[in-house]
């Protein structure tokens, strides 16, 4: 009996606290005046559930069209304008739909504190590059960044694909495996990562914060950072790499154009082996435009909510003053702004990048795919060249055909285009391995 009455009392306390929070969040919170769905204002749980259902980018796009004009108006027929006012997508979080506001949120050092959205422990124990602030963050970027040589990897990838597709095995020894299942675990964890980050109550009350102390680059921290780099670098780049072929395969006319361009440049001797970043930019404009359009614009691999906390005194986002709360933008939303990408913000149309330099420059300002400001992607400088180099090489070496539903199940059928090139590269590799055998003995 006593237990029952205790349970009833506990339930009443929980209910009262919940009711208080809902009422406070909806009517008395500093962000109460900002438009947005009522349930988003009341609790952060709906956003967490939407993330769990894997519908967040589409949801954000829909509600920015509906509420981003400063009021609750019905969206006009397509393409609906995004509006230019920040909207409330969780009790303490505002989302700005306008690309013009990206600089207001991400560039000002005064707002360079990352919001609680990052505190999920999924990207390793804090403090890590995503959670530390100020000078320590700057020093860590310097230590973790640095020049990389990716051309060798492109050649290696082409060689591996050739071997895989044309008779030889991958071979465990050469480690073409997901070492210790790191990427699989990362991907498996993403759903929870998104859920925990968005549901503030869970994050702040139920999560036990684990901290690893010591110097920024102590051995244990260094290992944690390397794991972060592998996780955040490989899956994003892989997604961007597969999105462009995905679009190309479903738009055969684009694939044909790209192939003609690559063949022509190849015939004129303009491409090294493998094609270099500068060569793609200079001689393969259509190919470059397709990479920008598919893997980076329409399917930004990181459509996360990269929240910042407005610093002391608040932040001016466009014409709106935001109090000292969390604010964010979203690549999937701003990169579909009909004002910049009209008349077809949803279509895969690489030609839009080739219409005029002025238009292209304007569209570039909407790109949030790698983040912006002091926390811009650490390895953007090598991820972009990698994208520009690999796909022309695949087109150059293989005939690509296949069917698609979704990147996850993208099946590609590669057929060798140039038998002679394959035999030559095989002979070259054999010569190399006998040479190394000689050196080893
Ligand atoms: C197409 C590929 C990639 C995309 C789309 C991408 C996207 C992003 C985005 C949007 C951010 C900003 C997050 C924020 O505002 O907090 C970011 C940060 C970061 N990225 Fe990337 N990334 C890519 C490749 C890579 C690679 C290859 C690496 C390294 C191996 C890497 C390492 C990092 C790190 C360490 C940060 C945190 C930087 C900081 O907070 O100072 N990324 N990335």
What attributes does this structure have?
single chain; 441 residues; alpha+beta; Cytochrome p450; five-stranded mixed sheet; two-stranded antiparallel sheet; 18 helices; 9 strands; 53% helix; disordered C terminus; binds protoporphyrin IX containing FE
Tell me roughly what share of residues is in helical segments: 40-55%
Order of helices and strands: HHHHEEHEHHHHHHHHEEEEHHHHEEH
State the assembly state of the protein chains. single chain
Number of domains: 1
Bound molecules: protoporphyrin IX containing FE
The name of the CATH topology is: Cytochrome p450
Number of strands: 9
Strand residue percentage: 5-15%
Shape call: globular
Write down the overall mean pLDDT.
78
Helix-strand makeup class: alpha+beta
**CATH second-level architecture:** Orthogonal Bundle
Number of helices: 18
| Rg of Cα set | 25 Å
Report the top-level CATH class. Mainly Alpha
Termini separation: 84 Å
Low-pLDDT runs of 5+ residues are 71-76, 166-173, 400-408, 435-441
CATH homolog superfamily:
Cytochrome P450
Q: In what order do the strands lie side by side in the largest sheet?
A: 1-2-7-4-3
GO molecular function: heme binding; iron ion binding; monooxygenase activity; oxidoreductase activity, acting on paired donors, with incorporation or reduction of molecular oxygen
Family: Belongs to the cytochrome P450 family.
Protein name: Cytochrome P450
Pfam family, one: p450
